[in-house]
Each structure stands twice: as structure tokens, then as C-alpha cells.
Design brief:
The protein has four helices and four strands, in the order H-H-H-E-E-H-E-E. By secondary structure, it is an alpha+beta fold. Strands 1-2-4-3 form a four-stranded antiparallel β-sheet, covered by helices on one side. A hairpin with a 7-residue loop joins strand 1 and strand 2. The longest helix is centred in the first third of the chain and has 29 residues. It starts with a helix and ends in a 9-residue tail after the last strand.
Amino acid sequence: MSRQSRFEVKKVNAELLTLTYGALVTQMLRDFENVEDVNKQLERLGYNMGMRLIEDYLSKTNSSRCLDMRDTADKIQAAFRMYLNVQPTISNWAASGDEFSLIFDNNPLTEFVELPSDLTNLRYCGIINGCIRGALEMVQLEVQCWFAQDQLKGDSSTEIRVKFIRKLDDQMPGED
């Protein structure tokens, strides 16, 4: 497949995700009693996706274990480029090197989206945070992710903070 064809496939995949994701969030808002329940479900859905996407990412890129959080940030950036055809900027590193921001000037999930005023607490793109957490836990890194800025709430860009919590021990299935 030519480079142009791969770009077109990625663009179509990102657009399809954008359109179907909006329908998913709308249905969740109908199905659950409150916005906090929807936020939890979006995070959980993303977490489960991340647990599966990491295997695909590792097989396609032949990546080795992350050496540190800077290496982790670079690989997260590459995954966004690979799966959503968007490349967030990595910035705002904590002095300790254990926390950074992913800044999206354009977020494909929020194209054509406008939040009503009664949904200001909705974390519409919470699926992304869950996806990052799920993928990194599969490679033994526990992190926290949260929105520092959100274009859907009037900010100039979307900023996701990622903070390293701890390295998880490798466990064999059935171990406690």
C-alpha cells in the first residue's frame, strides 16, 4: 500500500471514529442516570481498549520496554499518530520528570461537537485517558491521566496530564 493510501485509510478511520464516538456518548447519556456514571463508563471503555491496543502497537512497531517517562511520552505520541492520525505536542514536563502534558491543537474526537451547557461536567474525551492508562498498565506502568484544558469547554487546546505513579510488578496469572 502506498504512503498516500495509508494516509487516506487513517483519515477515514479517524473520521469514522469521530462520527461513531459521538453517537456512543449520546447513547450513554440516555442510558445512564447522571454524567458521572457516563464519565466512569467512558474511562472504563477506554481502559479496556488500551489493554488491547497495546498489543497491536507493540507488534506493529517492534517497540521495546520504555526506558523512562520521556520514552513513554514519545511512544504515546507515536500511537496517537498511528491510530488517530493526530500528533499531540509533548510539553510541560515536571521537574521530577514523572509528569508531562499531551497537547492537542486538533482533537479528532471533538470535531463537529458542541457540549450543551447542562453537560459541563462531562469528560467527553475520557476514553482517551482510559486508553492511556489501560495500555500503560499492560506494560507495568501505573499512571494517572486527567484533563488540564479542554477545547469543548472553551480552552484554546486540549491538554491531558499524564503522571507516573509506580512501576507494577510482573505477575504470573493466578498470583496475588
